[in-house]
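Following the same procedure, backbone shapes were mapped to integers, yielding the entry below.
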Amino acid sequence: MPLSFIILAAGQGTRMGSERPKVLHPLAGAPLLVHTLKTAAAMAADKTVVVAGHGADLVRQTVAAHAPDTEVVVQARQLGTADAVKAARPALANGSAAGDSIVLYGDTPFIRPETLAKMQTERSNGAAVVVLGFRARDPGRYGRLILDQGGALQKIVEAKDATPQQLALDFCNSGVICAPTALLFELLQNVDNKNASGEYYLTDIVALARARNLACAAVACDESETQGINSRAELARAEAVFQDRARQSALANGVTLSAPETVFFAHDTVIGRDVEIGPNVVFGPGVTVESGVTLRPFCHLEGCHVSQGAIIGPFARLRPGAEIADNAHIGNFVEIKNALVGQAAKVNHLSYVGDATIGAGANIGAGTITCNYDGVMKHPTVIGAGAFIGSNTALVAPVSVGAGAMTGSGSVITRDVPDDALALSRVAQDNKEGFVARYMARLRTIRERRKNKS
């Protein structure tokens, strides 16, 4: 059966204290909205629609970058969740699209595909409307799910409109709803705003469906899945939840974390088995680390790929485009950007390698710099297999150093170096005998004269 997702992302999020739309605040290196889009993608959605409002242009840019097949529509005025869902109607064949629709929220990043699959099962078992609920430790502000004696969902009551008896219940509404697309929009046509907030509540469709003798059901999940984010404090708590889950998953999958609480993963980090990760390692988006890699303390990786058996760090930085081949070594205070470091090559100390290709087995001496930027454009450096780059070499790109070639320490290389050649570009050393003693004596004499004058 076709499946559509409607993701509500129109809120401004005033409690964030930000001009940025709430759903674009980052969690584990990606906007909150991206986490919800990934959930929809994991469910093999046939159609996904994001309903934007505040900052709609920024939301469009984010969606285009992460889920280009997703359509973005705009809720002109924020009149409630039912009104927001109605804004998606034109994108879903004016509400007549085949199959089911699931309503998700761009500020609720932890809903699992497995949970949504349970909702689909309830639909298959005959429920016309399925709502996701949870048992709340502090149910105060949440809407309550009211069940009949047979356990079927009877209605949803918002906290503002609930009686004292209803407020005593702890089975709460997450806001996530699954229903046939055509029925969903048909029911929405009859939702009114006669409530304490004067808003159009999506949750009212349950009572409307029951009034038509349609079966409704509630599926329960853990409260942590339904964690919405409305403030910076809640965002920080969500980051802690994500990182704890990511660390536990890594440990369970054969990754060694010597100090788990100090390691931070991104939303898309991929780590192979038998990887050893030291303290204070941070992953930005787009990192893949293959099996058997050692990541020593205080490394930062983003947009890079590290192959089997490589050793990285300590204090190394791998930037976007860094490709580290099998058994290569990247050492302390080394930065790699948009560069391939070949098999078993070594860049062990205090170096910057950007826009470069380093051949297998090459050795890059301490303090080496690829001078890749001329102020306007970037230029490549190519270092051949087995080459030896002497310490404190500046390679002024575009330039190549041949296989098996060497550069002398302190050289500035501006021309290509042939295979097996030695390149030197130093000023000749000149030792001036006795100069220091004469020079220091002269300075002391000048100092004494100045003291006498004062």
